[in-house]
Amino acid sequence: xxxxxxxxxxxxxxxxxxxxxxxxxxxxxxxxxxxxxxxxxxxxxxxxxxxxxxxxxxxxxxxxxxxxxxxxxxxxxxxxxxxxxxxxxxxxxxxxxxxxxxxxxxxxxxxxxxxxxxxxxxxxxxxxxxxxxxxxxxxxxxxxxxxxxxxxxxxxxxxxxxxxxxxxxxxxxxxxxxxxxxxxxxxxxxxxxxxxxxxxxxxxxxxxxxxxxxxxxxxx
Length: 220
Ligand code: DX5
Ligand code: ZN
Description:
Blueprint: E1 4-7, H1 17-22, E2 30-35, H2 47-56, E3 61-66, H3 70-79, E4 84-88, H4 95-104, E5 108-113, E6 131-135, H5 151-164, E7 169-173, H6 181-187, E8 191-194, H7 196-199, H8 204-218
Parallel strand pairs: 1-8, 2-3, 3-4, 4-5, 5-6, 6-7, 7-8
Helix pairs in contact: 3-4, 5-6, 6-8
The chain binds D-xylitol-5-phosphate (DX5) and zinc ion.
């Protein structure tokens, strides 16, 4: 799998999400930010809305669960039709069991790290994951400034994946734009979430393609 752009709908118009998703046919997946007002100080949507969205598009959904107790709730998002489900390791009680459960249900299992969470303690878990998400802002809101301090962790995560010889994707999320995506690609990310950069663009689909081309250019 090459570079993938997975736009976040957090900055889209929530009153017409189906149409908003239809505006970005070039997206590799649609990144759906689920927030519960506990794990993060913001509230978005739950499995019922995600299920409706899944029915409205052929593009795979990439759920990013910023919620407490993902052990209980995450499998429901595979059932709701998400191709990929990301839980936060800071919230998971049993990340190995949870990743296996997501996979057993037919979803891609993914684990997210907040900016202050190191990757090293989780090295042995990497083979259990289809994707690792390194947050490049504190989760909770779109439109925040990219945190360069996360770049060394992306590099270390890429090195660990190479050492294990596994195909786990490495996703970055937060403040990704035409200005910051090259740094992420150079550091080793291959899946890029972009919310405000895509939905504030005049032509969101052209922005998806511009982001992909800019990331590819960074890799030469
Ligand atoms: C932040 C979310 C992100 C974010 C992306 O908590 O997980 O997906 O909204 O939006 P931008 O690209 O605007 O940072
Ligand atoms: Zn997200």
